[in-house]
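re: that chain from earlier
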Amino acid sequence: MRIAPTFHVAYRALRRNKMRSVLTALGIIIGVGAVIAMVGIGNGAKAQVESQIASLGENVIL
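^ sequence. v structure.
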């Protein structure tokens, strides 16, 4: 299978369906951004809880 015709078909589809292409790209960008934000928030919350537990001292039973 040659790759040039595949790119030609894909390019033609992108040009014919501009709004769908833009909305699809926007959805992917928002989705990736949301995942990155959730991972960052989760890591920040984990670090904060760990620092609060560490500040309690060593002789505290949980």
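The mean pLDDT is 92.
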